Amino acid sequence: STSPDPQDFLGLDAALDEDERAIRDAVRDYGRDQLHDHVADWYESGALPARELAKGFGALGLLGMHLTGYGCAGTSAVAYGVACRELEAVDSGLRSFVSVQGSLAMFALHRWGSEEQRAEWLPRMASGDALGCFGLTEPDAGSDPGSMRTRAVRDGSDWVLTGTKMWITNGTVADVAVVWAQTDEGIRGFVVPTSTPGFTANEVKHKLSLRASLTAELVLDGVRLPESAAFPEVRGLRGPLSCLNEARYGILFGVVGAARACYRAALDYTLSREQFGKPLAGFQLTQRKLADLLVEVNRAGLVALQIGRLKDAGTLHPSQVSFGKMANVRSALEVARTARTMLGANGISLEYPVMRHMANLETVLTYEGTEEMHALSLGQAVTGIPAFR
Ligand code: FAD
Q1: What is the rounded CA–CA span in Å between residue 318 and residue 312?
Q2: Is 101 close to ligand 1, i.e. is its CB under 6 Å away?
Q3: Do 142 and 134 contact (CB within 8 A), yes or no?
Q4: What pTM, to 2 d.p., does this model score?
Q5: What is the pLDDT of residues 160-210, one digit of tens each?
Q6: Is 185 a catalytic residue?
Q7: N or C: which end of the chain has fewer CB within 10 A?
Q8: What is the DSSP letter of 105?
């Protein structure tokens, strides 16, 4: 019998249902036909045809796909995870595009928005006609978002927002920003049309990672909004953290795609390139790497699938998301770094996907809760002792 597929060595995809497999194939085909040939250029130029991508992803049904109603597909969590995996096999920046739209901006509106806010934004966001971003991080508030300085104060029946958000994905192209701000009642979320006077978005330049993704500083200089712009009910960090939990789920599945792509590249390369009269893949040291990476790639896939099943069963605990985010990003980064060595000088070139993935994964390690924050979450989960401060 033939040996198992290196990308799915444990045969996990056989456990996917028909819908999940159909989504996998549709996203894989779209990546191959529409994204693959452009991604290196987008990465190098740091530019992205955001509107066009949004329409394409919207037509595929990827935007807010695991949400129900308002034009969203209402798929299983596993289907959403598999879509992230196939997209991130192309580039983490493209998966980030879909994560920010679906899991951060749309999820926030879906979970915490008023009926009016949902009806106004969600259908257009699902189709890709409107783009959203999610403003939590600030120049002086990253891992500790509770220390944010952006403030919303009441003026009559209006709200007036002042502050700066930093590292906001899709901020320069968004039509709407979900912005979290301090108020007298605790942290609250606001739905900010980016055309509102006083709102500006400045591109973050000089990134060496996640270059096929647009990143912005948001400046809110006395942005005046009606009462109806606030999320009605939620107060405190519970609001933004509920959204991050969703996005982290997409990440722990997505990075399996990046790891697979690096593995595939290393395997193909070492099978075809010869040194000392034989293929690189024939050397014991290379086979050690191929075996180690095979284990990392496929173990990460197993972790992702199990966490997806827990999510679909409705029993997933946030600490299990921390487990998956920490374990799988670490695995993917290790795979990317080792694969990089296996391609020799070609490993540093954008002609091959490996160093692009490797550099991207440095962002993925840091955003949506740094590796250290997830270690502290796990530490708290097993000891009951919070060690964050
Ligand atoms: P810091 O919090 O300053 O941390 C620096 C280092 O100190 C880290 O290693 C951290 O783990 C460590 N550290 C901090 N506190 C502790 C502690 N108590 N114990 C031990 N170690 C600690 N944010 C958004 O809101 N929206 C977005 O769309 C978004 N997109 C992003 C896109 C990119 C490309 C990047 C790079 C970031 C993005 N972010 C976004 C921001 C991201 O979530 C933050 O960078 C992240 O939360 C970490 O914050 P920080 O960079 O301020 O690092």
Answers
A1: 14
A2: no
A3: no
A4: 0.97
A5: 999 999 999 999 999 999 999 999 999 999 999 999 999 999 999 999 999
A6: no
A7: N
A8: I
